[in-house]
Each structure stands twice: as C-alpha cells, then as structure tokens.
Automatic annotation (TrEMBL):
Residues 1-217 form the Calcineurin-like phosphoesterase domain. Heterodimer of SbcC and SbcD. SbcCD cleaves DNA hairpin structures. These structures can inhibit DNA replication and are intermediates in certain DNA recombination reactions. The complex acts as a 3'->5' double strand exonuclease that can open hairpins. It also has a 5' single-strand endonuclease activity. Belongs to the SbcD family. The lineage of its organism: Bacteria, Bacillati, Bacillota, Tissierellia, Sedimentibacter. Keywords: DNA recombination, DNA replication, Endonuclease, Exonuclease, Hydrolase, Nuclease. PANTHER family: COMPONENT OF ATP-DEPENDENT DSDNA EXONUCLEASE, NUCLEASE SBCCD SUBUNIT D. Residues 266-357 form the Nuclease SbcCD subunit D C-terminal domain. This is Nuclease SbcCD subunit D. One of its GO terms (molecular function) is exonuclease activity. The keyword Hydrolase applies. It comes from Sedimentibacter acidaminivorans.
Amino acid sequence: MKFMHLSDLHIGKRVNEFNMLEDQKYILNEIIKIADNIEPNVILIAGDIYDKSMPSAEAVELFDEFLTEIAKRNLKCFVISGNHDSAERIAFGSRIMEGQGIYMSKVFGGRIDPIVLKDSIGEINLYMLPFIKPANVRRFYPDSEIESYEDAIKTVIENSHIDITKRNILVAHQFVTNSGIEPDRCDSENISVGGLDMVDASVFDCFDYVALGHLHGPQKIGRDTIRYAGSPLKYSFSESRQNKSITVIDFDKKENIKTEKIPLIPLRDMREIKGPINELVNPENYKGTNLDDYIHITLTDEDDIMDAIGKLRMVYPNVMRLDFDNKQSRALGINQVPENINLKSHCELFKEFYTLQNNDDLDDFKIKIISELFEELGGVM
C-alpha cells in the first residue's frame, strides 16, 4: 500500500503581513498533481491544517476544495488536528465525511483505536493521535503520574494495547527527539522549559511508521520510519534554505517499508539577499531569478538611502523584510538579535526576564508553575 504523508499546511497564514492564501492554493494543487502521478492509496495529513484555531472563511473554503479533490479520486485521507488547530472544529462532520473516505481526528477521548485498512498482504492498523498536552491525558488517567508530554503519549499508547504483530501506522503531531538529540527546527518552533514537551522516539516502537507533523523541515527522527513531512511552503526566513517536499511511503511487509521525498516547487520562493542597493537593483545581478519571490534584503550601504524600500520594490515587489548591516547599524545594535532568541520558548524568555528583573534565578518549583500556566494558556508552543 502506498501512502502520501504531508503536514503543517497552516492554511490562512500571514507571513510578515503577506497573505499566503494564493501560494497555498497553488501548492495544494501541485500536491493533487503529484497524487495523480504517483497514485497513492492513502493521504496522511499530520496536523496544523490551519494557522489559527478559528480560521477565516477563505481558509476553510480552500481546505474544503482540497479534500473535495481528494474524495473525487476515491483516495482515503486521514487528517489530525495540530497545536494550531481547534480539535473540535477539525472533528466537526467527521462521521459524515468517513462515508467519502475522509477521516478527521475526533476530540481526544483517552485512547486511540485503529482504523483497519486492507491490501493484498493483509490488514494495516492506522491510528490517529491529535495534538495533546499532559492536561488532556490526566483527566482520563487520574491515578497515573503524568508530568511531561512523553508521560502523556506513553500513557495513551500503553492503554491503547497496540498489537505489535500487525502492521501499525501512527499519525501524530508532537515534538519528537531521538535519545535527547533534538531535530532541526526553525525560529517559529519552540520547546518548553526543561524540554517538557519532548517525546522520545522510543515511545513509538510499536509502530512500523510514524507520520509526524509539527516541525517544518522534512527529516527522520532516529530510524527511517519516524518522519516529519515538513510544511509544503516556507513560512519564515529561517526556512529559506530548506527543500520542501512530501513523503511517499511504500508499505509492503513489516520489515519492508520504503520512503521517498518528492520535491515541492512553490509559486514564489522565500529567499535572502544581501549587498549594496546599486548591486541588488542591477539587472545583471538578478537575471534569471524570480523577482516575485518573497525576499529578505540586507543592505550594506554606508550612506543613508532615501526611500530604500520603495526603490527595492520597483524590482522586488514582494520584499517582506529590510535590514541594514553597516557601521552605523552595528554601532547602534540595530538588527543584532540576541543569540537563539527565536528558538526560545515563552517560558525560557520569562525565566530570563525574571533573572534580569530580580537578579536571581527561578527555582525548579517556580519553573514548574510557570510551565503549567503556559500549558493551560496554550502558550507552550
């Protein structure tokens, strides 16, 4: 059986105040073309369908169009909610859509039950685990000690009684590490204080393939069959060097699983360029490039430039960000962002702020309280 794994669509997202809906419509159409070419049996969408828990009407309409195209092709599609989604909104209408082969994750109810697929070899059990926090799991297992995300996921899997003799696939949306080694992240992907949201890959040993969402860079975690598909588009300049793709899984016997990444070419790329303005607007230097790309420009001119952004947009209409790197900006500290600030969670930033204000560190007890508060408020990620 052939599966197509994608995630983190973030439909409706705005990047630096640019509406990405046209780009998203284009890339979803490209994904449909790829599906027509490779003819998968199943499409897995591992969370963060929308960028907000209350998506716009336009975002909902675009996802509806995408699912309709999938249903027209008689493909089965499994969709889970991510941390950006409303689990209740993703679950709406799920029983009706199952009749069309579209399976939307239900609101978490304490355990996960398989949906059984069949091919020429036999049965494949497919499990859907929407994004969950420890608080979501504690209410179902009040006698269990659930402090971290790993505790929560482990508890759910143990109580779902997975039959390891069968072929099992999990679709999940969590931050997964490999023996303490963190995966590659972009600046919009944070972890909580003390790594409370980390889930070790060993927790998923009972699954033959784990289709992950949450991180935007396509990558494996430990073994080749625990994978992040990554986002289909670049959503920050920290992703500008990533090669976006979808992951295809050929699932034969338990010991015979092959994966392949198929590149995704966007309507507009996201890239960074640097130099003096005269060089950047010289046709010889931008010949052969897509001038409609989303651009982060860093100007190195020492002299002040009147209406620099206006002059640059005469050539690059989609300049998203303009910075300066010269003696004056370095002297004033402009554009000098503290190291790794974009990779720090709300809790880590609060901890540093507390230390600066009080000349003392937060103790473990206070860190635990702050972590729980951010978890309850939805501010961990």
